[in-house]
């Protein structure tokens, strides 16, 4: 852990914290992992360990709104285990630190989909942004500056930026990053973290994103999901999920291209190219 003054030199945005909690933290350390958040773990006298999720230029680039994230966390409180909001301000969000270890890749899928179904049943108590596929893809595209990459990926971006025809009209709270990396195992329960992409959207899209991350086929995943949440017409849901797939993949592709630029990491371009090859 870095002493507080040293941590401030590494991340000046930490200076916003004392006024939010009325105390000067004892120290802080950067958290490993996380691609768009770059969070810090902060030790305080009154609250113990907290996590500082700063608003930043990267948040703007990736279309992340910390106030929306806070509203999502406040809405799920009491329904499932997640970070609790301690304080928020213009510069960022302070949440409780959750002890636990990321679940392994062989964690039972039905337990995970039970948690996802639980999220989809929550009626948010605060305003949560509505997901807009076209706006999201356009935002990513506008923030990619490499013209060579834009020429390569332009045709897929233009082909899949419009919303597909769907049957399901549900608009529910979605996590949108519900993978092993954001689910902790702690004291025989699951803890869901990192709600920065949360939005109101079709549960079929959240299922597609989740099942792709879990490596489950859609039929199997939907069958498991139905054990925990009633679905009027499973065949229509499955049809919608298949319709979503290429759109969700192109969204991920543009995210990887953007991440490669922002972090100057060519490994993200490898992931983007793999998606391109599957869909071109």
From TrEMBL:
Residues 30-231 form the Aminoglycoside phosphotransferase domain. InterPro entries: Aminoglycoside_PTrfase, CcrZ_PhaseVar_Mediator, Kinase-like_dom_sf. It comes from the Bacteria. Pfam families: APH. SUPFAM superfamilies: Protein kinase-like (PK-like) (SSF56112). This is Phosphotransferase. It comes from Vibrio chaetopteri.
């Amino acid at each position: 852990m870095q002493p507080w003054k040293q941590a401030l030199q590494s991340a000046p945005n930490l200076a916003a914290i004392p006024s939010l909690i009325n105390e000067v933290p004892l120290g802080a350390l950067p958290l490993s992992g996380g691609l768009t958040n770059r969070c810090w773990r902060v030790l305080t006298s009154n609250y113990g360990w907290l996590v500082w999720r700063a608003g930043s230029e990267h948040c703007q680039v990736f279309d992340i709104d910390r106030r929306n994230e806070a509203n999502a966390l406040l809405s799920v409180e009491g329904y499932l285990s997640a970070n609790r909001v301690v304080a928020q301000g213009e510069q960022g969000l302070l949440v409780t630190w959750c002890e636990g270890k990321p679940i392994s890749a062989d964690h039972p899928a039905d337990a995970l989909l039970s948690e996802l179904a639980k999220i989809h049943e929550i009626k948010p108590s605060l305003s949560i942004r509505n997901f807009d596929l076209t706006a999201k893809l356009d935002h990513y595209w506008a923030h990619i500056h490499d013209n060579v990459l834009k020429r390569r990926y332009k045709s897929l971006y233009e082909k899949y930026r419009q919303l597909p025809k769907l049957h399901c009209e549900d608009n529910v709270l979605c996590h949108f990053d519900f993978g092993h990396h954001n689910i902790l195992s702690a004291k025989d329960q699951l803890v869901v973290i990192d709600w920065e992409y949360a939005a109101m959207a079709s549960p079929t899209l959240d299922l597609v994103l989740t099942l792709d991350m879990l490596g489950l086929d859609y039929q199997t995943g939907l069958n498991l999901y139905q054990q925990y949440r009633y679905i009027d017409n499973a065949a229509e849901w499955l049809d919608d999920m298949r319709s979503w797939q290429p759109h969700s993949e192109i969204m991920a592709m543009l995210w990887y291209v953007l991440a490669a630029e922002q972090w100057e990491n060519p490994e993200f371009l490898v992931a983007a190219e793999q998606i391109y090859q599957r869909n071109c």
